[in-house]
Amino acid sequence: MGSLSAPGLWALLVSALAMTAIVGGRYLATSGLFALITRRARPGLYAGMDRQIRSEIFWSLLSAGIYGVPAGIVAWGWQAHGWTRIYTDFSDYPVWWMPLSVFLFLFAHDTWFYWTHRWMHRPRVFRIAHAVHHASRPPTAWAAMSFHPVEAVTGAVVIPALVFLIPIHVAMLGLVLTIMTVMGITNHMGWEIFPQALVRSRLGHWLITASHHHRHHEQYRCNYGLYFRFWDHLCGTDRGISTP
């Protein structure tokens, strides 16, 4: 950083600020959309929860800044210096690599999330950081990024780190971010948006939806995963689904 020229430092700052604005704007738009869907599909579900929702929005916008800074640094490094393994030419890798790269990103993110999430349920760490997220009782569509800064930092570094390790097309990276956003919100809405035919199917046995994550918010020491139930099944922490 000390060797950066003034224009380079300014470009880095602008990139970090721009990504912070994008993450914050994405949060407000997507959580707002699913909150509106909830209002129409489950009228009154969030009644009397205005104070909790304001708290969720406060912590989420704070988290947006924490997520935006490393994302902005990575975006600047990719554009200005060719850092990362993000590619734009579809011919750089075989077509089959694109869906595989998405799965690898999601599985790596899920693995990191599972183990850091379990760590955050240790009593001292929980009191310091993770209690902020569990203050949402029950969670709402606004709670997806409602994290203490300590927890936000653990989540903010994952995707920026992975783009240095796993080649991914920029469109597939966009898909990963979309899945991350949608799953984060729908898992916290307080009701199941996906059909029961999927939730209770063999495929659903390995996927996390609101029915699975809601039990974590009820019982705390189970169902730690983010996208998949693989680690929960393997480590004996899966307690099945509930009916939010």
The sequence of SSEs as H and E is HHEHHHHEHHHH
> What helical percentage do the residues reach?
55-70%
Q: Any idea what the shape is? A: globular
Structural class label: mainly alpha
- The number of helical segments is 10
Biggest sheet character: 2 strands, parallel
Radius of gyration: 19 Å
Unreliable segments (pLDDT under 50, ≥5 consecutive)?
Answer: none
Spatially, the strands of the biggest sheet line up as: 1-2
Strand-residue proportion: under 5%
Measure the end-to-end span: 48 Å
Mean pLDDT over the full residue set: 95
Overall strand count: 2
Note down, in words, how this protein is organized.
The chain is mainly α. The protein has ten helices and two strands; from the N terminus they run ααβααααβαααα. It has helices at 6-41, 50-81, 97-120, 123-134, 149-156, 158-162, 170-186, 196-199, 210-219, 230-235, and strands at 86-87, 168-169. Helix 1 crosses helix 7 (170-186) and helix 3 packs parallel to helix 7. The longest helix is centred in the first third of the chain and has 36 residues, at 6-41. The termini are far apart.
Features:
244 residues; mainly alpha; two-stranded parallel sheet; 10 helices; globular
SSE arrangement:
Elements (H helix, E strand, L loop, with lengths): L5 H36 L8 H32 L4 E2 L9 H24 L2 H12 L14 H8 L1 H5 L5 E2 H17 L9 H4 L10 H10 L10 H6 L9
Helix pairs in contact: 1-2, 1-7, 2-5, 3-7
Question: In brief, what are we looking at here?
Answer:
The protein has helices at residues 6-41, 50-81, 97-120, 123-134, 149-156, 158-162, 170-186, 196-199, 210-219, 230-235; strands at residues 86-87, 168-169.
